[in-house]
């Protein structure tokens, strides 16, 4: 079948229909593929607010999946090397049969696994998918957002067998009709250096032609439901709550802004939106992402915020992939949260690319950025305006990241300048929006995908 023919396409991930970056990126690819006449199916371990064929063994919170991952990458407790191999093969076969059934039932021409064949997580799933692909002879585009060698957890194999699985299936080299997509330049280089595989870079993108997010009849109650008052300046942390997002840096920053030397610079000033920053005004950090870090990470953040006098609202239960009602109350979309904030904190020390950065650009809100390595290699060159937290950090004994006092003070002064200068605030976000629309729009993605499919 030619690349520009209409195809039945299966997009596969551990989950879909949630607010994580991979799920959101899959939705964009689905939009483009369907716009070009293809039939797209989701296959995942859970469907969230999207429609998908569910293979429950793919679910990232499946108990047996979690057990196998612990045995592979933490410590052998319930298995020895022989019985672990048997368990992996048995689980793989069970999943493989479900893949094959779906591929045949829906005459799948092309599969697009997202992270299943690169991350290192759940080797039994990667083995199952690879075998199903080979047996059904479907074409493959491996969409690789993260590689196992980028995550310390997946590089500490408990047995030589697991090491062999990482080498064999992440990604597989024995699939003849497979193309590889990475989302940044260093990943392209690494994939060639480590695996000898060519790949194309397709960055994260966003629909910059979408209607702007605004306050409306539905999200007009968001602030009240979340617990935000009108005298609060809202800093939104829109990411998941996981260690590499380094949310503690945002807490440190607000603590500095709360100090009299900085706070007094704002008192009595008119803010960018016409409000007056008074003695009663308060800075608040809002976390609305799911907690997916180490067990104690969220607790550490809450303790740090409390000890430093930072008001931090943690309300992930009010946010989902799409608006809906649950148990008689409103659940808002991630986009509603962007509408009702003044600034966005994005202090991640590692990102595969930066979905939330694009969302912030579309929301037309100033962003506070730690210049993580991929930001420097793939994003910074486009000339976006932002408040920088620098590019240097250290990890303290408690496992939390820390940057210099100098970097915090410099960022605090910039934040005050943005908040109290309407012209700067508005011109900056409009410039950023125009740059992003030029370089990271759906049109850009469409051109890249069409060109990719034509190469078959």
Structure write-up:
The chain is α/β, with parallel strands linked by helices and 456 residues long. The chain folds into two domains: 8-205 and 442-454, Rossmann fold, CATH 3.40.50.2000; 219-438, Glycogen Phosphorylase B (Rossmann fold). Helix content is 40%, strand content 15%. The protein has 16 helices and 18 strands. Helix 1 (21-35) packs across helix 16 (442-454), helix 3 crosses helix 4 (123-136) and helix 8 (248-257) packs across helix 14 (405-419). The protein is globular. The chain starts with 7 loop residues before the first strand and ends with a helix.
**Total helical segments:** 16
β-strand number: 18
Q: Which whole number gives the mean pLDDT?
A: 95
The assigned CATH architecture of the largest domain is 3-Layer(aba) Sandwich
| Structural class by sheet pairing and helices | alpha/beta
Strand order of the largest sheet: 3-2-1-4-5-6-7
Number of domains: 2
- What is the name of the CATH class of the largest domain? Alpha Beta
Any low-confidence stretches, pLDDT <50, length ≥5?
none
The H-level CATH homologous superfamily of the largest domain, spelled out, is Glycogen Phosphorylase B
Beta-strand portion reads: 15-25%
What portion of residues is helical?
Answer: 40-55%
In whole angstroms, the N-to-C terminal distance is 8 Å
CATH topology grouping of the largest domain: Rossmann fold
Radius of gyration computed on alpha carbons: 23 Å
- What overall form do the CA principal axes indicate? globular
